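Good morning N.,

You mentioned wanting to compare the apo and holo forms, so I went ahead and generated the holo version with 3-O-alpha-D-glucopyranosyl-D-fructose. This is what I fed in:
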Amino acid sequence: MASEEVGALPDGPFEQRADQFGPDLRRALQALYGARGDFEAILARLMCIAQSASAERPSELRALDRARARDPDWFLTPDRIGYSCYVDRFAGDLRAIGGRIDYLRELGVNYLHLLPFLKMRPGQNDGGFAVSSYREVEPALGDMADLAQLAGQLRAAGISLCADLLCNHTSDDHEWALRAKAGEAPFRAYYLTVETEAETQEFEPHLSQVFAASAPGNFTYCPQLRRWVWTTFYPYQWDLNYANPAVLQEMAAAMLNLANHGVEVFRLDSAPFLWKQKGSDCQNLPQAHAIIQALRALAAIAAPAVLLKAEAIVPAAQLVDYLGIGPSAGKECHLAYNTNLMTLQWAALARGNAELLAEGLAAMPRPPEHTGWLSYVRCHDDIGWGVLRAGSASKQRDWAALRSFVSQFYAGESENSFDSGAVFEVTKGQAVHGTSGSLASLCGLERAQMKEDRGEIDLAVRRILLMTAVSMAFGGIALINMGDELGQLNHAEFARAPRFDGDGRWLHRGPMDWNLAAQRHEPGSVAARVFSGFQAMAKARAILPLANAPARIEAGPPSVLRLCHGQNGQQFLLLANFSSLPTQADLPAGRWRDALSQESALHDSINLEGYAARWLLQGSEP
Ligand code: OTU
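and this is what came out, ligand included:
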């Protein structure tokens, strides 16, 4: 294999990478299993897993490993546009996704997150987030060969495939859970269980509740085990016990097997919850970070092209830690969802004011080198308001009041509400959790279309484009949630369907509306306005001098977010007016041009229509 040998030097063979990243693996494992007598054996076993994965890695993926080693910041270029969707609702099955690549390319997408597609629990399965096997695709969606084939097709089209790694829990019908229930001691040790209800109460008071209304509490009694199983999420999602090194070994092997089928980016689901410790809230513990760092080192050794992305819905103060800080910089995740940007943007839109948004973003620590944010305005989950709390911005605020304001606002309950969203998982006494709804419905399109009010439809479209313009201008990968590029509305039928068991997030998980997609070429239609707006931004973004976070962020006037990036003598300025009223914003000295409309010779100040977002460039022409 001459071609392999030519490129083999820069990142070197397995042994070289093992030498380079082995110490990181050792350090991470020490934080987890350092006190154990069999520590060296645990390390050796993981190295063995990495070695066999590396040996099995197909040659095209080894070529990718080499290319990525030459260009480690490949995922941080401003042309990175992501898209996330469910396989069945976007295309039908994995094979059929191949037939939609042209659509994705038309939009400018080069990163595709397919929501869980591995074998899932029959019946209730939290949209596939209850995995029954890490080594099989859900039969209705295809098989592992289809996965590898699709990944190859996507790669050939310049699209990187991202998949979830359900690392915190398995389904209660996963083989490990079944064998645990059957009484096999080694598998019982895969899960976190306690014997009595009284013991659960030693943890509960310190823990938060994710599905507080529909799945209260963090433990579920299992009659077969005659014990209480730790279930942070739904009762059928059993939390794994990483204090048992066998669990880390299984998860590492599962990840590397998927990587060898072409998955390039792993979304580490529920990353904050990986380690539990009595007396703590069992989130963001140092050991949870150590587990991720171990997975990172193993990927670097066995499948170096692979990226890790943290799904950590935590306040800003804890968020950047997932990108690796201090001595761990560059040794944890490459990417993390920028949930702070997302929630603060929605709060700004509700309040018609950008000051808190600017303040919150300015206070955020910068991502370390070679890491970046995943910016998004909507995803398959609710907007979790819980992250808006002390640490989200520098000044003291009444965060609880803000959380209930936004929650009510997006449930359409405030005087000025324009949206058709719904509260998610609200319980008595705990006023706020999250909001469900599609981007378009939350931006007012649904109500406006119902009223057939052209003026309001126009405002809603502007809000959609404003929210997207801000997220796309922040830096890192900008992610579009399926259907948002067309202004797709809520799917009320799903929200009511008994098979989804009252989980309100199905409100915005409707099937892709391909009829609406067909309208994207009909000038003047809402679909065309939204789609072409997204497309133009995706295209224009490629030449913006975006770093992995803005250089300066401020508000002025109060409704306008000003966000600047500057690189190689080129300056970029985003001006985003979160108010429905027009306003005027000062421009920094010099002559500016609009990167989207190409309007040139702008200087001194600029008029911003209600909900207008402008992308302005200064300096050398591209
Ligand atoms: C993640 O979610 C997934 O994105 C959800 O779709 C799953 O239901 C869940 O894990 C279990 O697998 O807190 O950090 O508020 O934002 O459950 C993990 C609801 C999470 C989600 C929350 C989230």
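The mean pLDDT is 94.

Happy to go through it together on a call whenever suits you.

Best,
F.
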